[in-house]
Amino acid sequence: MWVEAEKAVDRKQWDAAERAYRRALASDRSHVPSLIGLSSVLSTQGRHVQAHEAIMAAWAQRPGNPALIYALAQRLRFFNEFAALEQCLSDARFAEQAPVPVVARGVVMLSSIGAHQAAVRMAQRGVARDPNNAAILYVRGNLHLFSGEPEQAEQCYEASLVADPRLYQNSWMLASVRTQTRQANHVDRLRRQLKEANPGKEGEAYLCYALHKELHDLGDYEEAWKALERGCRVKRSHVQYVPRDDARLVDALIERCDRPFVEAASGVPQPAVPIFILGMHRSGTTLLERMLSGHSQVADAGETGSFDAQMQLAANRQYANRLDFEIVERAAGLDYDAVAKGYASAAQWLSRGKPFFTEKLPMNFWNAGFIARALPQARIINLVRDPMDTCFSNLRTLFAGVATYSYVQEELAGFYLQYARLMRHWMEVMPGRILQVSYDALVADPQAVGERVAEYCGLSYQASMAEVERESGRVATASAALARQGVRRDRGQVWKHYQAHLRPLAEALRPLY
What we know:
Strand order of the largest sheet: 2-3-1-4-5
Distance between the termini: 64 Å
Mean pLDDT: 94
CATH class of the domain at 243-512: Alpha Beta
Helix content: 55-70%
Shape: globular
Structural class: mainly alpha
CATH architecture of the domain at 243-512: 3-Layer(aba) Sandwich
Number of strands: 5
Low-confidence stretches: none
Radius of gyration: 23 Å
Strand content: under 5%
């Protein structure tokens, strides 16, 4: 019956697949392959809550087969079930018996949810099993970089390139590990690799962004721009982005989320106080999280989709990266107590036993009104950086699965304008609820801003908050290499090196100046 269901899935006959999976489960309700398959089919049909129930039923069986562990882990990650995911992948049979490239994917899942130590242990075991596997060497390099170990990261990336010269992510990461110099850089190799890469494919994008970064470090701005422009063109061809959808979503949020809506707050208690750090990507959110996590009472949960996960369950609708128009349409009828209860359960894992924890997902600016309603205990901090600085930093960052707006200057500026418009609305309907923090002020006087942020969060300021260059903790974002260099005051106005090429961006952002 399970084989019959799988064949129906291959034919995309979802109803037939569901019937076959359910027949299998009627015979054996603990049959994990059928539960996993049923969950996937239900998601395809838009039945998000039932899909979640099916995968949690599969998790309750605690399968030991490595293939089932991996399939289950993928679905648990899809639903942001972090505690279950960490336990699932911690089964020693997975690291010992799964193919090493699959182990590498497990490492990525663990790292993405902040389970850093578990990820390191799994990566170490994978490398021990096959020290010449390119995939496991690459993810091991990432973990070294996230932990502030750039030399070890470089060694892993170079070894991965030897194992697979076409795994161009290594070249991209090698460019970011340190500031390149005339004496030590990879420019010649990157140019050779670009001649070998398949035109228009993802590998070309990785190499172009790497070449841009290295040429920028060397001060060769004209050639750096050519590489960036080429990389943006390739990347834009791989993403789907419709600017008018963002404008429509902002319109809907402004109409739906007025002051009475956000003030009708849930009374469900939380086990720890979440501190939501939001704003545009590349606006300084990582730096602020690094400061807050230096406090003895604050855990850094990183970039999680935990709040989105509860909104999706409440609305019985899954969406990718940010909430969609249909969720806003259903917003008035959602059970925000259920959102709060589900979030409280997740917070027990996210907070790691501390009374406060950071939720640093920049795109939570879409959710600010829903956060305020479901989690009145939460603190919300919006990072604001100069629009040109922010947008150019987005333009020259190769994002993975997010920020699809960031590869065309006019689209990038348009998105920033919509972000600014929505934040003005949140500030208007939630006076005093959101703390605005200037990135320029943060880097100019970290202690003063740190004291202000601590007071807003209900914390006493600790000097360790300003020690962002400390060795402890992890940084798993695009700012990984920069975050441990301390508070740098030379990151602004970088775009001026490319001013002649950025006229479309500057013109579109003119209303903000």
